[in-house]
Amino acid sequence: MTRLHLLIQLLSWTAFCGSSFGQAPDLASAADFAVFTSAGAFNNDGTSIVTGDIGTNVGAFSFSPGLVIGETHVADAVSDQAETDLASAYSSLTAQSCGAPLAVTLGNNQILGPNVYCIGAAATLDGTLILDGGGDPNALFIFKIDGAFSTSSRSNVVLINSATFDNVYWQVTGRFDLGDNSVFRGTVVGGGAIELAEGSAVVGRVLTTAGAIDLHNNMVVSSEASLPVTLISFEAKKGEGQTARLRWATTAETNSDRFDIEHSANGKKWDKLGTVLAKGNSASLVNYEYIDESPWKGVNMYRLKMIDSDGSFAYSRIRTVKNSATERLVIYPNPTVDKLTLVVDDISQVQRIQLNDISGKVIFSKEKGASANLSTEIDVKNLPSGFYVVRITRSEGAIAFMKVLKQ
């Protein structure tokens, strides 16, 4: 009787643990990237092939002679937004409770089910690790590794029984090293440098909030969610006058309904601009076009919401157009001794003024009140000498940066 009671308790505990699978982090714009570092150099040697966007927001960049089936973003509006979204996803993973502890050595044909797994020190993967989805295509696997993570040569992460790489996340607080000729699956959300050794492959993403990325003749594959629409291109460019011209093309459509064109200044708040009806059913090349007659001054971000006839949808990657007819925005004197003065065509359209030091720490921040515009002067006489960054946020969300020198 006691044995039966213990067995029932064990089964109940197992079922309870199995149902506590955590929550997938929202990568937002960072999901478009297959390889990305928020702050670090990006280097490649050999003929690496990456499907998905690549880039760095702060650091030197070199990818020749590799092949990128996607876009490259280096210190631009897209990489800046990806840095913000990746930091948010990293924090989301940090906040999640541990479902089950693991030893620091993974692999050797080890089989794991969905859960939030925690390793409290540097860890390694040796041989094969099998992740079993149990027949559930939404089975979620989260690994939280507090330290560096490395794999031995020819290691492998295998997914079975409906497990998918899109539902596997690896938070690594330290450095991530993938051994040569290994095959790794899932999304790495790291906090340190990333290096993929010769001939290794990743089915998923390798992203880090800080640290250099080094590729060596690798393959990284990160696929967008597929709808009954095969989108082969999407571009946004300046049109005639002050317009923006959006063009895209599909090679296959099945029961597709429409494309909603969405517009944003900062990648967070999106507005619907218009709708273009889809072909519906097609097995040939179909070209589409939309003209934004009145883009904002400064940065304009666009994306397509591809909607099926049953209401399901997915988003395209983000495309950016910078309107050259920007309003005047000047900070003087630069260098300065005691104060900075902002000159802008319409101060009522400025929502926030911030001053950061070179480490990113906010030194000064002032937001527009309900009934009064911001002051155009910043007192800096008590600040130490050095470089600072002035961050101007407009009411519609567009952001401008200017570097200044305090003497």
How would you describe this structure to a colleague?
The chain is mostly beta strands and 407 residues long. The chain is built from two helices and 38 strands. Belongs to the ice-binding protein family.
- Largest pleated sheet: 12 strands, parallel
End-to-end separation: 82 Å
Beta-strand content estimate: over 45%
Helix content: under 10%
Number of strands: 38
The tally of helices reads 2
Overall pLDDT level: 86
Structure classification: mainly beta
Q: Which regions contain 5 or more consecutive residues with pLDDT less than 50?
A: 1-20
Rg, alpha carbons:
24 Å
Anisotropy-based shape:
globular
What attributes characterize this protein structure?
407 residues; mainly beta; 12-stranded parallel beta sheet; 7-stranded parallel beta sheet; 2 helices; 38 strands; 9% helix; 49% strand; disordered N terminus
Reconstruct the topology from this structure.
Layout: H1 2-19, E1 33-37, E2 42-45, E3 49-51, E4 53-56, E5 67-69, E6 72-74, H2 77-95, E7 100-101, E8 105-107, E9 110-112, E10 115-119, E11 123-126, E12 128-132, E13 141-145, E14 149-151, E15 156-160, E16 168-172, E17 176-178, E18 183-190, E19 194-196, E20 201-208, E21 213-216, E22 219-221, E23 229-238, E24 244-254, E25 256-264, E26 271-277, E27 281-282, E28 286-292, E29 298-308, E30 313-315, E31 319-323, E32 329-332, E33 339-344, E34 350-357, E35 362-367, E36 377-379, E37 386-394, E38 399-406
Parallel strand pairs: 1-4, 1-20, 2-21, 3-5, 3-22, 4-6, 7-10, 8-11, 9-12, 10-13, 11-14, 12-15, 13-16, 14-17, 16-18, 17-19, 18-20, 19-21, 20-22
Antiparallel strand pairs: 23-24, 24-27, 24-28, 25-26, 25-29, 29-30, 29-31, 32-33, 33-36, 34-35, 34-37, 37-38
